[in-house]
Design brief:
Strand content: 25-35%
Structural class: alpha/beta
Order of helices and strands: EHEHEEEHEHEHHEEEEEHEEEEEH
Radius of gyration: 21 Å
Number of strands: 17
Distance between the termini: 29 Å
Largest sheet: 5 strands, parallel
Low-confidence stretches: none
């Protein structure tokens, strides 16, 4: 089993490695990372591990910043000295939440929980998974209502999704905006992430809609959309800049 450890304290990571090796000889530690930036770069450039052990407080910030910059589908066991992040941890891919110093019995229980819910797939299950992966997973169209009428708009014709006055909208290539029923969090899951990017809390933009990218204060970026002067320049959130550059440079 390939395991990634994200821990900025060397004694803590060494102890965790020793305990894991004692509990399961099949475990392979693929890497030990110490910071948010280091972890994001590693996840973008390497195959996903089967399990992640993650500390909360890292060298350059809180580990939840990692989830904002890169999609993580791998199950996570949090290992931390802080108990106030429990609820937030279980909103992501959390299997368990272990408080330091780690007790071997609790670590074993966490591993058993992971193995119980992530058993190796049978051949039939693997085949079904492959078929599912070959099928389109993103929305091709969005149904909208204008007055008493309904319209179906191709996702490829949408330039961006945005929030205005607490309502969610899409902007099409005709320059018209329409309200959408989905939240931006849900839309982010439904659209092709090779073409759309969540630049900040209020905007998801299509690659072809970006007219200009301008350096902004404090290593931030500013985006101008193509022929869309009615929308002001969009600021890329500071925590998303690195991932945005990776997306633009794919």
């Amino acid at each position: 089993m390939r395991v990634l450890i994200i821990e900025d304290e060397r004694p803590a990571s060494q102890k965790l490695i020793r305990l894991l090796e004692e509990l399961d000889s099949s475990i392979e530690i693929v890497e030990v990372l110490k910071s948010v930036e280091q972890t994001v770069n590693w996840l973008l450039r390497n195959p996903a591990p089967e399990l992640i052990f993650m500390d909360i407080q890292l060298e350059d910030g809180i580990c939840f910043e990692i989830f904002e910059k890169v999609k993580i589908k791998t199950p996570v066991i949090f290992t931390t000295a802080y108990d106030e992040y429990t609820l937030k941890a279980f909103k992501v891919n959390s299997v368990d939440y272990l408080l330091k110093p780690i007790v071997p019995e609790e670590l074993k229980n966490a591993l058993d929980k992971f193995k119980a819910f992530h058993k190796p797939q049978t051949d039939d299950a693997k085949f079904e998974s492959i078929i599912k992966q070959l099928q389109p997973q993103t929305k091709e169209r969005f149904l909208i209502k204008t007055g008493e009428h309904y319209r179906s708009i191709l996702t490829s014709n949408i330039r961006c999704f945005y929030i205005s006055e607490r309502c969610n909208f899409m902007l099409t290539d005709t320059g018209k905006s329409y309200p959408v029923d989905y939240s931006l969090d849900k839309i982010e899951q439904l659209v092709d992430q090779k073409l759309f990017f969540r630049v900040n809390r209020d905007f998801i933009v299509h690659f072809s809609a970006i007219r200009d990218i301008i350096a902004y204060s404090s290593n931030r970026l500013k985006i101008r959309l193509t022929n869309r002067d009615e929308i002001e320049d969009i600021i890329v959130s500071r925590e998303r800049v690195a991932a945005f550059k990776e997306w633009m440079d794919r």
